[in-house]
Write a structure and sequence with these properties.
Strand content: under 5%
Largest sheet: none
Structural class: mainly alpha
Oligomer: single chain
Order of helices and strands: HHH
Shape: elongated
Helix content: over 70%
Radius of gyration: 19 Å
Number of strands: 0
Number of helices: 3
Distance between the termini: 22 Å
């Protein structure tokens, strides 16, 4: 579980490096979505997907741990 968490944190840190943009550069699509209020829909959908993946991984880890304990007996 620690390896997965470490890998996940590294991915998040490295993605932040690629997300840097200059202050003067505009993104018309993002500006329009913010103006329409639809950006929050995108944020919620991404959050739900992320929560689902985390829940799946936690559930999978529990099942694997349970099987490992059974195989030791």
């Amino acid at each position: 579980m620690r390896k997965i968490l470490f890998l996940f944190l590294n991915v998040l840190v490295s993605l932040n490096l690629f997300a840097q943009q200059s202050v003067n550069q505009e993104t018309p699509m993002a500006d329009q979505m913010r103006a329409d209020g639809k950006i929050w829909v995108v944020v919620v959908v991404i959050g739900v997907i992320f929560a689902g993946i985390i829940a799946f991984l936690v559930n999978l880890e529990r099942k694997v741990s349970k099987l490992e304990k059974q195989s030791k007996k």
